[in-house]
Amino acid sequence: MMWYRETPFVLGGPQQAHLKVRNLSAGYGAFLVLRNLHFEVKPGLTVILGPNGAGKTTLLKALMGLIPRQGIVLLDGDDLPEKTHEIVKAGVTLVAEGRQLFPQMTVLENLELGGWLCDKHERARRIEQVLADFPKLRERAHQLAGTMSGGEQQMVAVARAMMSAPRLLMLDEPSLGLAPKMVDELLAIARRIADNGTTVLMVEQNVKKALAVADRGYVLERGALVASGPARLLERSSVVREAYLGADDVDKTTAADAVARRRKSATV
Ligand SMILES: Nc1ncnc2c1ncn2[C@@H]1O[C@H](COP(=O)(O)OP(=O)(O)OP(=O)(O)O)[C@@H](O)[C@H]1O
What we know:
38% of the residues lie in helices and 23% in strands. By secondary structure, it is α/β, with parallel strands linked by helices.
């Protein structure tokens, strides 16, 4: 059985979010990580690539209101609120790195928490929809989340995020630490979610696989965007080819490998 049902799913909606970002700066206290970023997240699937420490997680945290930000962020033309719960209400949800499930709670209980903003009836309706969209989770509904495999937990984390019926879903390295088959399933799910009407912004280290499912991409290095464009063109661009896709086995190439290689070649 697939993790995600074949027929179109119900959550998400026809109203796809469009995010416009101008002069975004963010960091930790006096340590500025992101400096004056300009980018756009259009309906579909956008991926942000970049090496460890480039600021990818910081970028998602800033958009989610988890750290202060400066600059202009417009969601469908309106200012994105600054407080996290208002950002969720505006239709934006983040699946953080490390999934952050409640391990001592069941799958069902974790899903219920994803619907904290809606009333009991709406929550029950969304649970039904999510379980229809992720049929394998129905079988696991009463399993403690902490007893599931990493890949299964990531599915729960994505399903829980869908409980808020987001218009913009942000995923922070969803494939981290997963077996190749599970990586393929997860990226296919991200693609399906985008196809079904929820805009997706995804940070990924798995460059080749991420570009294969994405519509557009950006490359972030040391807090600055150094390349952008349609995924197909980005894959062929010299920045990405030289930095990220130069290894013998490109499927295994991660941004970390790429930077190590880049540094090595820079010192030769
Ligand atoms: N809570 C924090 N306090 C201070 N500095 C931080 C904090 N979190 C991250 N940083 C720093 O901000 C920079 C960017 O980190 P960030 O986690 O955004 O990078 P990343 O591109 O997501 O990398 P990774 O792929 O390793 O997750 C790094 O130099 C990191 O050390």
